[in-house]
Each structure stands twice: as structure tokens, then as C-alpha cells.
Amino acid sequence: MSSWFVTHGAAFIVVLPLLMAAITAVLPAVRRLAWFTALVVVSLVALVAFIVLQTQIDLGAFIYRMGGWEPPHGISLGIDAVNAPIALLIAAMGVATLVYAEPAVDSEVQRKKRAPFYAAFLLCVAGLLGMVVTGDAFNVFVFLEVSSISTYTLVAMGANRDRRALSAAFNYLILGSIGATFFVIGIGFLYAETGTLNMADMRQILANLDGGSRVAQVGFGFVLVGLGLKLAMFPLHTWLPGAYAYSPTAVTAFLASTATKAALYLLYRFMFTVFDPSFDYVAVTLTYVVTALAVIGMVFASLQALFQTDARRTLAFSSVAQVGYMLLGIGLISTLGLVGSYLHLINHAVVKGGLFLCLGAMWYRFGITRISDMAGLGKTMPITTAAFTVLAFSLIGVPFTAGFVSKVALAEAALERGWYWAVAVIMIASILALLYMGRMMMVAYFSPPPASALNSDGRVQRREAPLLMLVPMIGLAVTSVLIGVRGNVYLAEVSENAARVLLPGGGL
Amino acid sequence: MRIPVKPKPAKGPVVPPAGSDPHVLLRVISKFLIPLIALFAFYVQFHGEYGPGGGFQAGVILAVSIILYALIFGLAEAKRAFPPWLVRLGMTLGVLLYGGTGVVAWLLGGEFLNYSVLFPDPIDGQHYGIIAIELGVLTTVTSVMVAFFYAFGSRQPDIEDGDW
Asked: pTM for the complete prediction?
């Protein structure tokens, strides 16, 4: 059985959630049935994604021929050192969010919409995994739309709690569709230039043409802008704060940890393995445009995060800033830079997913959305606040946490290039992170709890989050510390392998 | 200026008194055309392997016949003929028919959606495999088109015309 997954696992992790989503959509509205189905499916997907990763590590890169058709004419799935870890990351974050989702969705989404909610969630998982594993450029667009359209639905389901979710979802729908359209126009230009949709084949033909004519350059621009919208590259991030702040809490955590990451993976894939930084226009764009936007985004979005009153909007703007770190790593065009970027992608998925889970638990117990309402949480929800603190330290980049490992890696990469100013920007953005995360922790620990949280005898009443919420958030907090302490052993190797695949020549 | 308030449509099928139906031509011709449209949908479906056509186009045409029925005879009548629960089931069944073909190919030892393993002769396999897939596409596309129409058609305006 295991050997079957070794051969067919890459397709299985996309097909299983896709088909189970269709079944989940028509399940009767029995309590927990849809949730349980989704949890079993995503757990199985995570398991198979792990087998696929192991296969990739043992045997190296491999492709899966859909329907038995040979590439470049048939659609193939390609697994290599870059996408296998990200597929596992998406599936694992899906499991963590789904464990959390049962109590949260129970209170946020109407009963009759619960089965469609989990169906849309499974579709989103399938779409994201499909985007990551596929080796066909047009197939990427199809899966991008599968994940995006299900995401719009998921965001809009927050309307039961806050009507602003509807306008946020509509905003995301318009901008997301523009992004996808740009992307597919870019693919069209590339198809016109190379006559193929298979990404490996496209790379070969573009390399033979030495970057291709102006048609390929236009295609490059469209792909960059389209993916930039999807991964919330500053200043194309305006859909993100609303979508993160008003969607159901489980959806926010899942989106923050996977959706922008899958789009960022596609940016790696297109910038480094379809195009190549050895083409002039790619190198210039990455060095000047992407790096500049990354740096401006890091500082500007951090400043915006500092002035938010809504806790989830703060973290949403922080996400835009963190995307800036990852883009900076791309802009360096060096193996070290990509190692840092890749590490930060994984770390940020774990950390931001965990932080949104904690905020969701706070909303679940006390209906908290504003930072000023977080008063006294250190006493009323000590475990949740402790997990929140650990993850916040990791976001800031305190030593022995995940954020430290990747920020140091990025700073080293910048030093190697001689970009001392980039190290300064990383420091400034980290200090700003300290300020906006510190503001929340100050309120949580040092403000007295509101009178409604006190017993009749004046003692603080503890109202900890339910166990199903605590388990994933503690798990993610512990993971972030483990990465911080032992990250240089396992994750560093994963990132280095990925960077070597992306930049076999070692960059500029 | 006051916009005249439109009278609300009566529930259920509209049965006008004999001889006074202004839409009698539309009704009679639609009744004649709807089965032909549906038949043409299946022609496009099964001719799809040899000429232009296939599951998507056929699904749209089949849905058009239902939508025309709803336009002429009213949404309530259309929902009686093609109930919403059937629409929901159809959306799922189509996807499962498509994906299920792939799963059967898996169970028979081939790659996902490799129709050649479905039958002893690979050419037969490709032939029947694509027919099964196209049937799935037909089912889903028809259901989704009708679901869109029902969703927009059933929508009550938030603000009545008279409220302005």
C-alpha cells in the first residue's frame, strides 16, 4: 500500500480533497459529521504528503504523468525539493486549523451552512496543493482559481458574525480575479513565445532563446504582477487586511499560513525555474523592483500595523511586512538569500497560523476583536496568552524561536551581497514588530481584567479555550520553539536543498 | 415623481382565463421547442468525440431548455419539474462521475484518469473513458447553470420599489 502512495501520492493529495469536497457538500447537517469527514481527509492528505516528501528525499525529483500521457504534451505533476516541503506544510496547517475549527465554526457559521463550509475548505486545500505540485503552467492557473474561489466563499461565511465580511470578500474577489487574469495573460504570452505549457519544457526553450523576445518579457511582467496580487506584495496587498479581519477565525489562520505561501512558491517557481535570473530583465526586475517593493513593504506595512485598533488587522498588516522579508530573499538572487526566504516562508506559516488561532480562541471566549479589549487575558486565559506570547516572540525574532533563525539567515545573505542597508531594514522592521506585538501583550498582561470577567467575590474567573483549540495552538507554539532551537539541523537542510534546485548556479 | 408600485406576482402557476392569454404564442412555441433543445443537447454531447461539442456545451444547452421553461411558465413550475435538491445532487454526482472514472483507473493499476486501463483494449478504454467523463461534465454544468438561475431568480429584493 505504501509503495502505491510512493508512485501515486502526488496525484492522491490533490484528488482526495477535491472529490471528498463534492461529497461533503451534500452531507446532512448532522453535528460534527462534515467536520469529522474534513478532518479525516486532510489528515490522510498530510500523511501522504509526508510519504511524498520522504520519496523525494530518498529518490530525488520525480514526475507523475496524469492519465498516462507523456510530458510535455500531457499534464504532469512534478515533485522536487522546492514543492514537496510546501505541500506537507499546507496539509499540516490544514490539519491544525481543522482541529481548531470545530468549536469555532460551531459558533461562527449557521448550521445549514456548515457542510458547504467544510466542502469549500477541502476545495481550498485541494486547490493550494494542486498549485504547488503541478508541473503545468496552465494547470497552475486552474488550481489557483479553485483555491481562490473557494477562499472567497470561506471569507464571505464570516458574515454571520460581522457583515463587513461580505464587502471584504467582494473586494478580495475583484482583486483576486484581476490577479488571476494577469497571471493567465502572462501564461498566454509565454505560450505564444515557447509553444508549450509544461514548465520544465518552457524553461528549456526560454534558455535556448536566451530569455526570449519582448513577448516573453511582457509575459514575465504579467506573471509577476498577477502573482504579486495573490501573495500580497506591497502595494498590491489591499485585499488582505479586510479578508483576514472579517473571515471566520479558522479561515484566517488557514489563509495566513497557506494561501500567500502557495503564491510565493509559484513566484519562486516562475522567477527561478521557468525564467532564470541569468536573463537580464529577470535579474534587473528582481534586484530593483522586487527588492524595493519588499523593503518599502516591510517598513510601511509594519508602521500600518502599529496604528491598527483591530487585533486581526494588526496581524494582517504584519503578514504583508513578513511577505516583504521573503521577497527580499528573492531579490538577493543568491543561494543564501533563497535559503533565508524559504525558511521564513515555513516559519511564518507556523507562527502566523498559530497567532491567528490564539486570537480566534480569544474571540470565541470573550468576543474580542479590538486590542483594547484584550485587557486581563493573561489572567483569564493564561494558556492561550502564553502560546500567543511565545508565537509573538517568534514573529519578532527573539533568539531560540523560529523567527530568529530565518531573520538571521536573511541578514547573513544580505551581508554576503554587501547590502548593509538591508540588514538595517530587517532590524527596523523587527523593532516595529516588537512594538506592535508588545502593545497587545502589554494590554493582555498588565491591564486589569474587565469587571465582567470577575467572580462575585472579586477573584478573576478563568475561562480557558476548549481543548480542541488549545491543542493546535500549543502545538504550533512548541513547533516554533523547536525550529528555533533545532532548526539548523533539519529545516536548514530542507531550505538549502530547495535553494540549490532554484539556483543551481549559485546566483549572481 | 412617484414610481408606480408593481403588483407582486401570484404564487404558483399562472392560469389565465381561456382566450385572454397574451403569451399564448410564446407558450405554445416554447412547449414545442424545449424538448428539441434538450434533444439537441444530447446530440452535442454524444457527437462531441467526432465534431465540435462535448459535455460543457451540451450542459449549457440542456440548462437553457430548463431556463426557458422557467422564463415562460414561472420559477415555481420549473422548480417543481427540476427541484433544487436534484440540482445540488447533480452538481456532486457530476464531479464524482468524473473523478470516479479516475479512481477506477487507479484501482485497475493505471495512473489517475488513464482510460486505457479501463478496458482490455486501450482504444475501447479511451473511448468509454471519455464518454463517462463527458457525462460527468454534462451533469455538473447543467446543475450549476440551473443553480445560478434559481439563486438569482429566487432572490427577494432587499428594498421594495415602493420603499424609495
From this structure: 0.91
